[in-house]
Design a protein that fits this description.
Layout: E1 14-19, E2 25-27, H1 30-35, E3 43-48, E4 56-60, H2 61-64, H3 69-73, E5 83-85, E6 88-94, E7 99-101, H4 104-109, E8 117-122, E9 127-132, H5 133-142, H6 146-152
Antiparallel strand pairs: 1-8, 2-7, 3-4, 3-6, 4-9, 5-6, 8-9
Helix pairs in contact: 5-6
């Protein structure tokens, strides 16, 4: 798994770039599946990333239910049902063929559209983020991480 800023302490782990496909799916890179111990048919919790940025976070259901997310999971009554909790969107879904499938409501809630290029990156120990590449480029350039911007081009596309 490449680091976008090799040798920089605390640099984010990047797994690749996922493109939101016409079938409303995003592929989870194999290294990310491995890192978060997710396999096909596993249940995952989806939520939005930072407000106003667009993107989503994918959490291993079994890990999430052992954290503060357990209270959220208890409020979701069905798979693929969008639920707002404290004005934040959540949904449970299954991983199918290394992909998660979104619906229109969830895509709208996370400011996503078909064709979006999303950087798949380690967010926390239980969540991976799928955030628009352009947002990361802006963040990196603001902080002077020009090498990270160049290294985005080297990531595998899924």
């Amino acid at each position: 798994m490449p680091s976008l800023s090799p040798g920089t302490p605390g640099a984010k782990e990047a797994y690749g770039i996922a493109i939101l496909r016409n079938d409303y799916s995003i592929c989870i890179p194999s290294k990310a599946l491995e890192r978060y111990n997710i396999t096909n048919n596993d249940l995952v919790l989806l939520t939005s990333t930072r407000k106003g940025e667009g993107g989503l976070a994918v959490l291993n259901y079994n890990y999430a239910k052992q954290t503060v997310f357990s209270q959220i999971i208890q409020q979701i009554n069905d798979i693929d049902l969008l639920v707002y909790i404290k004005s934040r969107p959540y949904a449970l879904t299954k991983v199918l063929q290394n992909r998660v499938f979104l619906n229109n409501d969830f895509m709208e809630a996370c400011n996503l559209k078909i064709g979006d290029k999303l950087l798949v990156i380690k967010s926390t120990t239980i969540a991976m983020s799928f955030s628009p590449v352009e947002i990361w480029k802006i963040k990196f350039l603001k902080r002077g991480f020009t090498e990270a911007v160049k290294n985005l081009e080297k990531l595998d596309i899924f």
